[in-house]
Amino acid sequence: MSFLGSAIKSSGKPVTGDNFPLFNSSKQMELQKYTKRAKPTVSPTLAELLMHVDDAQNDASGNNTPVDHRVLELGYACSSLPSSQPFVLSFNNLTYSVKVRKKLALPFCGEGSKLDSNEIHSKILLNDISGEAREGEIMAVLGASGSGKSTLIDALANRIAKESLKGSLTLNGEVLESRLLRVISAYVMQDDLLFPMLTVEETLMFSAEFRLPRSLSKKKKKARVQALIDQLGLRSAAKTVIGDEGHRGVSGGERRRVSIGIDIIHDPIVLFLDEPTSGLDSTSAFMVVKVLQRIAQSGSIVIMSVHQPSYRILSLLDRLIFLSHGHTVYSGSPGNLPHFFAEFGHPIPENENRTEFALDLIRELEETPGGTKSLVEFNTSWQARKNPRSGFSCKPNLSLKDAISASISRGKLVSGATNDSNLTSSVPTFANPFWIEMIVIAKRSMTNSKRMPELFGIRLGAVLVTGIILATMFWKLDNSPKGIQERLGFFAFAMSTTFYTCAEAIPVFLQERYIFMRETAYNAYRRSSYVLAHSLISIPALVVLSISFAATTFWAVGLAGGLSGFFFFFLTIFASFWAGSSFVTFLSGIVAHVMLGFTVVVAILAYFLLFSGFFISRDRIPLYWIWFHYISLVKYPYEAVLQNEFDDPTKCFVRGVQMFDNTPLGAVPVSLKLKLLQSMSSVLGVNITGSTCVTTGRGILVQQGITDISKWNCLWIIIAWGFLFRILFYFTLLLGSKNKRR
Ligand SMILES: Nc1ncnc2c1ncn2[C@@H]1O[C@H](COP(=O)(O)OP(=O)(O)OP(=O)(O)O)[C@@H](O)[C@H]1O
Ligand SMILES: [Mg+2]
């Protein structure tokens, strides 16, 4: 193998577009032969990029001596390894199975009629997979759909629970602690989860603000982003928004590269990617893999899954693992594929795409009765013959701790870390303190919302329309017994509407939720900063919504209390919006689908209204349902605004002559009503005239069963509900975003 023997090349070129062969001359895009391939001239590492903008480490440590960063060309023999040990990720005998219910075939109901039985058996998704991935190389996992590619990537990326995964995973001979792996690695998901209204440059800049330490000045972060934009070939799209279904944005290939960019901004040592090229045309796919090759050559291990690599992509891959039903059917370099299949008795014809041939052959074998067993066995014996030293692991000269420290001092994991004696503390879990994370999250969210004013516009429109409809329906209500009934109806409807309008935010929360999960899985920021930032930035919008609703209804309906009454009415509506949005946020943390989210919110709010005390007052609610009355979010704002309306002791709502309204006697002439009052007075022994006040506001509150909590306490309770749901939201994120398979 021409790889044998390692040459050490040092690179000290300045960062210019010319250093990126892919994006410049077409000559440089020429493919390398994959059998005897010499590595291309080493492209500038991210560390160097940083050094050229004034090295990050100098910033953090005050050490101004430039570090000579060397990139290693790797050989496969231990003896050839240079003294500074490159990273080697080894995995041995990885086995992972899941429990599945057995299907029972129904003999009389034809093919396909199967029932779930209670019999549980285990399905092996990964069967004794071993291999090695090295710094400077791309290891690709290939196989048909369902062969276990994503599962293997997940196993390597520590996304499978420890208890379920058998086998070992080591980096430079040392078992990888999951906390450490999270910090030194990145996982690029198949889906591009990005804020649609941020530009490519902004997206990368926010990622830089999250993942690069505070010790790095803004100027350097910007320079890092610019270097990355060049490295990813995104220069021409830098100022374009990402876009979504409703807004035109960057192309699919560019979006893919942005997704990769945000995860490699801190220059991770190990990079996992699940099908980074899926859905891309061959040129875009090639460009993506070319970028990955450059990342690998800057001193990282790149492990990716790929469906069917083109001839050109294959030339960029260093190691392949072919899987079939969770078994390894080939493991080795692309160059060895022809020998392997020739020895197996199926030589690859000239001019045939090797991977296509291999995948087709594997599929054919899968369809035979013996399956791929013969190929699996042949691979095992072939491996034993070709790599008699496999199992023997090169003893690294450097411990993992020292290797990571050395890597950091070369500018890797741009984290401003110190060479601490404790390995895990040498790499901080989060790049920034809590408050910086909060500011960046808030800034990003506000930038995105500002570019989509229609989202807030729709919410404001819905609130205003509801307010105007209510204002016209309940125009200038009087204080007659009928007017009182109408006021009660207005309050019940208005208070539940504030909650319903919050439900509109579900899709927004859900969209953000996935971005959040991706970002927190690899420690971009703390979950708590997200929850707090998210809560704080929602407040200004809620204030505007509450003022709009309160102002359109308060005077139009003729509510009581003057300016102070209006202020309390506004506060109650604001608190309801706050509690409602917290409730909806919490629900979006547990319900992952938009439609399901709407259904659950609407149903729960309907129950809240039912138990609020409007339809049945508290003293008449059956005892076994009373708990629901107390958890009804609508109860508290309803009671608060009723007290605000009716607590004036000087105000009378029903006078003597109005006692007969809403009764069959309501229709009799007033003179007769006065006579009735006179006779009632003589029977009762009290003087009730036509103008005697028989029901005060207080009386109405008692009739409605509103006697236990004062209006200010109601307000505090609503606000407290809001906080409670935010705290619950935090816990759902904590528990629900583990991102691990069981
Ligand atoms: N929790 C599970 N229970 C049962 N089977 C599972 C489970 N998770 C995965 N599988 C099965 O494991 C196999 C491997 O899945 P995996 O997602 O790794 O395939 P893949 O090679 O990545 O396929 P694709 O190319 O389509 O992405 C599939 O047959 C899948 O149905
Ligand atoms: Mg997959």
UniProtKB/TrEMBL annotation:
First-listed, main subcellular location of the protein, grouped into a coarse class: membrane
Domain (ABC transporter): residue spans on this chain: 89-350
Keyword Transmembrane helix in annotation: yes
GO biological process: one example: transmembrane transport
Transmembrane domains' residue ranges: 456-477, 489-510, 531-557, 563-587, 594-616, 715-736
Listed GO CC annotations: membrane
InterPro entries xref list: AAA+_ATPase (IPR003593), ABC2_TM (IPR013525), ABC_transporter-like_ATP-bd (IPR003439), ABC_transporter-like_CS (IPR017871), ABCG_transporters (IPR050352), P-loop_NTPase (IPR027417)
SMART domains: AAA
Superkingdom of this protein's organism: Eukaryota
GO molecular function term, any single one: ATP hydrolysis activity
Entry's localization field: Membrane
Protein topology in the membrane: Multi-pass membrane protein
UniProt entry keywords in alphabetical sequence: ATP-binding, Membrane, Nucleotide-binding, Transmembrane, Transmembrane helix, Transport
One Pfam family linked to the record: ABC_tran
Protein family membership: Belongs to the ABC transporter superfamily. ABCG family. Eye pigment precursor importer (TC 3.A.1.204) subfamily.
PANTHER family in the cross-refs: ABC TRANSPORTER G FAMILY MEMBER 20, ABC TRANSPORTER G FAMILY MEMBER 28
Protein name in UniProt: ABC-2 type transporter family protein
